[in-house]
Design goal:
homodimer; alpha/beta; Rossmann fold; six-stranded parallel beta sheet; 6 helices; oxidoreductase (chains A, B); Flavoprotein-like_sf (chains A, B); NAD(P)H dehydrogenase (Quinone) (chains A, B); NAD(P)H_dehydrogenase_qn (chains A, B)
Chain lengths: 262, 262
Amino acid sequence: MKVLIVFAHPEPESLNAALRDVAIASLQEAGHEVQVSDLYAMNWKPSVDRADFPALDPGERLKVGAASHAGFVQGALTADVKAEQEKLRWADMLILQFPLWWYTMPAILKGWVDRVYAYGFAYGVGEHSDRYWGERFGEGTMAGKRAMLIVTAGGWAEHYSERGVNGPIDDLLFPINHGILYYPGYTVLPPFVGYRIDRFNDARFAQMAEALRERMRSIDTTAPIAYRQQNGGDYVIPTLELKPDREEAGTRGFALHLTPAG
Amino acid sequence: MKVLIVFAHPEPESLNAALRDVAIASLQEAGHEVQVSDLYAMNWKPSVDRADFPALDPGERLKVGAASHAGFVQGALTADVKAEQEKLRWADMLILQFPLWWYTMPAILKGWVDRVYAYGFAYGVGEHSDRYWGERFGEGTMAGKRAMLIVTAGGWAEHYSERGVNGPIDDLLFPINHGILYYPGYTVLPPFVGYRIDRFNDARFAQMAEALRERMRSIDTTAPIAYRQQNGGDYVIPTLELKPDREEAGTRGFALHLTPAG
């Protein structure tokens, strides 16, 4: 497969960078082709602003969705954004790698999403009406491609467990896995999460690196997170609420959007 | 009260800007003092990098937490970060206002959190050991102050409802309300959320503005979200897991961290 790793850490000698290199080597050994967007090294511009839409009339009010759509269909987005979109088209698999800062991705990576995910490319795809709400959540530009997160956290696994004070890691990552990866059509693999990364020694690094290698070796066979398709019949259109009795009794919150096992 | 509004929208003529002005006017009419950090107008730097830590030796590897701590205790963070921390000390209440982009805040506001929330200021406060895990989640530098979100979304309220495809809005905002506002000690009020903001007319704006005015008039009396205190006896130390049987039967996920009503 062709794999794009979008990497967001400011320090080239960081644990994150070392894990990235483990992932790259492991993917290449397995015969995959790898490209990396190292956002800090690229000096990636994080904030969406007027400069992102060179075709927008200077006197016109900036409406981000409309400007993004016009720029996308006219081929008039900026060169850095178009280059990233090209990499996404090229890749069969997308990996986002980042340290968990304040329970989500660093600003520079959020800014990659905000800017690269143009209207017409990652959202606003397909008919939007009261009868059909677009190709998204399992359909869209990225349908058929795979994606996953590689995340590091300072806290303990227990702090992110089902009853941990931070909230369960799967729920904290839902807005990214479901809202950013599944939304434009990616098939989403379970995340790789490394905990307690501020207290590392060689033995623990070796252990984490081996676990990551194992995940990289199996990217084409790992079973994905079983999110429901928006247009698969489970949701009422246009309110997009899950139809009654589609879930196991007692299921609540984000877990409603998983297809029940068996 | 003294109120700081941190505002993140690139367009001065946007609906968000109009709502911000409604909030300011309403707060001032009620006798509150208001400061605004308009992040786009300030050209806020979003990405944490070496330049944030001028005291860091150029040959030294950047460890963000350690560099942030050293910079904070030595008074050696950058002037823009110190100015924001000063505003946070000044304010009795913090309001973060932003459009929901990809289910969370825009990159520029995430970058405000990543940079202003220094180690020793917003985290790493108090003893950290196997017996005590810091002053956070209800305690810390911001204890006694209030905070809330003002958020706009393009989708329908139903899409963000209990069974909506996006996930419930309270769960989507939990990493911000609990993980960014409650973490350093703020008492967190329920968010103000405006839906379908891409399909606006004067009548709907008037209605939303009036609802926002009502919220602004009652900032000192609105009942907060009843998050549990980390050090209030509900959690096992140091795994920080909620003790058994502290919740109503059937409660799952983020809702575990709310004190049961009555």
